[in-house]
Design a protein that fits this description.
The complex is a heterodimer of chains A (270) and B (282). Chain A is 78% helix and 2% strand. A two-stranded antiparallel ribbon of chain A has the order 1-2. With 270 residues, chain A is mainly α. Chain A is built from 12 helices and 2 strands, in the order H-E-E-H-H-H-H-H-H-H-H-H-H-H. Chain B is mainly α and 282 residues long. Chain B has one domain: MetI-like fold (Orthogonal Bundle), CATH 1.10.3720. In chain B, 77% of the residues lie in helices and 0% in strands. The relative contact order of chain B is 0.12. Chain A: It is found in: Cell inner membrane; Cell membrane. Chain A: It comes from Paenibacillus mangrovi.
């Protein structure tokens, strides 16, 4: 069996090359000065990044993406942690129902979600079409599955029921027990799901394009428009985006291991 | 006391409930309602569904979407099946690296992915030029902007996801089983056919249904590659609700409902199999 080890290594290496190639090519393109009729670039430059980070249109697009994502994320963290907590603690009968609801966004692709949202908010009592709020709402729904999983799992890991009981026996009110005992303990889990959600939101194109595309240019819409204008600039955007995703993944990994270590210490102490 | 708790619970759940109703439930209901209306929006009719399923143009789009989802899922699955098994045979460090790397590349889809493939295989792409230098004019037989090109790009975004979903399943195959099977005289092939694959089967089908749904719902990748030129279900829906020509929201809604039902079907299969899988383990 051992002698086939090299075969596995070959397969894994081939897979790595396959997966890294498009990314590597994009990176090369972003630092290439001139590259149109040769296999490798003729000369290299960092000018595209310089141009990108001084381009006020790009910076405005970054600002817009951050604004929409931040509002959706904050709304999600606040309302969902309260909801999941209350259902977990006091309304366990609703748990299956809540779980079913949180799964729906998985079955609704961006295009389908856009159809309904445009229908409801382009006419009638509330008109949100073309404003940032329709996108905030759409993004809030998009990240529900991830936020639910994260919050639910952290509540289960810290055994929130017993924590609340202990805090209340010691004289804390329900509100105080939640804010000062439960909330700090599930913060790690919430931050991890929020980071995951954030990396999904900054890569979202479809709903942004349909719901606010004309009036509110996010990073992905800007990228789409640059695609046919300036390839080098576009590749610099893609690499910048991936650097952010990479940083977020790294942060999630760090936070995750720190969180787990804490759990282990707790178990060892017990 | 009890009443106070109920009141408190209602207030606590209200913001979430309002947002879910406003941005998920209502739009879905409005879309389903719309799909049963005639083009002028006055009368109830099944006209839109009949058009969607019988018009050669739209039914072709549905079939194309099903086809590309099937092809890309099958190919992605086969690659991921071999690769994730090979990953489990590597030292722990390489295993962790490959999983982290798959996780990173699973973010690579939509507009950025289409762009990267244009750099690699577009009209003046890296490989296109490389092959030309070697004396083979790739564009004679393959174009990134054709169906085979689209399948290639779809496979790419399926592979990392499939690796992430399949890799944990291999831990269900214990080393001892292989040893016992070998001791009892089973060959490698026999082990995989009789034990390995049957044990993995629920995960394989579950992963497959997720990949399938993933491809069915994809829009940005194809759109970024050739605009609205591919006849795919998602692209058709997109042009019907925000097209260059006149929009037909009712027909778009009917197509969206059809797509939603297909996604639900894929997820239902996944859910059923996962549940069975877990029961088997216990």
């Amino acid at each position: 069996m051992k002698n086939k080890r090299w075969l596995s290594l070959l397969v894994v290496s081939a897979a790595f090359i396959y997966l890294v190639l498009p990314l590597a090519a994009t990176f090369m393109y972003s630092i290439a000065k001139e590259w149109s009729h040769t296999v490798l670039p003729v000369s290299y430059t960092l000018d595209w990044y310089k141009e990108l980070f001084t381009d006020s249109r790009f910076l405005a697009a970054v600002g817009r993406t951050l604004t929409v994502s931040a509002i959706a994320l904050i709304a999600s963290v606040v309302t969902m942690s309260v909801t999941v907590f209350v259902v977990y603690m006091y309304l366990p009968k609703l748990e299956r129902f809540l779980q079913a609801i949180t799964m729906i966004p998985f079955a609704v692709p961006g295009v389908v979600a856009a159809v309904g949202l445009i229908k409801v908010y382009s006419s009638g009592p509330i008109v949100l079409s073309g404003t940032i709020w329709i996108l905030v709402g759409a993004y809030y729904v998009l990240i529900i599955p991830y936020m639910y999983q994260g919050i639910r799992n952290s509540l289960r890991t810290i055994d929130a029921r017993r924590l609340m009981e202990a805090a209340e026996i010691l004289g804390a009110s329900k509100m105080k027990a939640f804010l000062q005992v439960v909330a700090p303990n599930i913060m790690g889990g919430i931050i991890i799901s929020a980071l995951l959600s954030f990396s999904i939101l900054i890569g979202e194109f479809v709903m942004a394009n349909f719901l606010v595309g004309g009036s509110y240019e996010t990073i992905q819409i800007y990228l789409m428009r640059q695609l046919n204008q300036n390839g080098h600039l576009s590749s610099a955007i893609v690499i910048a985006y991936f650097t952010i995703v990479l940083m977020i993944s790294w942060l999630m990994l760090k936070l995750g291991t720190r969180f787990n270590k804490k759990e282990e210490n707790k178990e060892n102490a017990a | 006391m009890h009443r106070k708790v109920t009141l408190f619970a209602i207030i606590a759940l209200l913001p979430f409930a309002l947002l879910v109703v406003g941005f998920l439930m209502l739009p879905l209901i409005a879309m389903i309602h719309d799909s049963f209306l005639s083009a002028d929006g006055r009368t109830y009719t099944l006209e839109q569904y009949i058009t969607a399923l019988t018009s050669p143009y739209y039914s072709k789009g549905i079939v194309n979407s099903l086809k590309i989802s099937l092809y890309s899922s099958v190919i992605g699955m086969i690659i991921a099946f071999v690769v994730s098994y090979s990953i489990t045979r590597m030292p722990k460090k390489i295993q962790n690296f490959m999983i982290t790397f798959s996780n990173l590349t699973s973010n690579f889809s939509g507009v950025p992915l289409a762009f990267a493939f244009i750099i690699l295989l577009g009209n003046s792409g890296l490989f296109t030029l490389l092959f030309k230098e070697w004396g083979w004019n790739m564009t004679d037989t393959f174009s990134l902007y054709s169906w085979s090109g689209l399948v290639l790009v779809y496979v790419y975004f399926q592979v990392p996801l499939a690796i992430l979903l399949l890799y944990p399943a291999y831990s269900g195959i214990h080393k001892q089983w292989r040893e016992s099977a070998a001791l009892l005289g089973a060959s490698n092939l026999q082990f995989w056919l009789r034990i390995g694959i049957p044990v993995l089967l629920p995960s394989i089908v579950g992963t497959f249904s997720i990949l399938f749904a993933n491809a069915m719902g994809a829009y940005a990748t194809a759109y970024a590659l050739v605009g609205s030129n591919y006849n795919l279900l998602t692209i058709r829906i997109g042009s019907l609700i925000a097209g260059d020509v006149a929009t037909q929201p009712q027909l778009g809604s009917a197509l969206a409902v059809i797509l939603g039902l297909m996604m639900l079907g894929a997820m239902w299969i996944n859910e059923r199999l996962m549940r069975r899988f877990r029961r088997d383990l216990q």
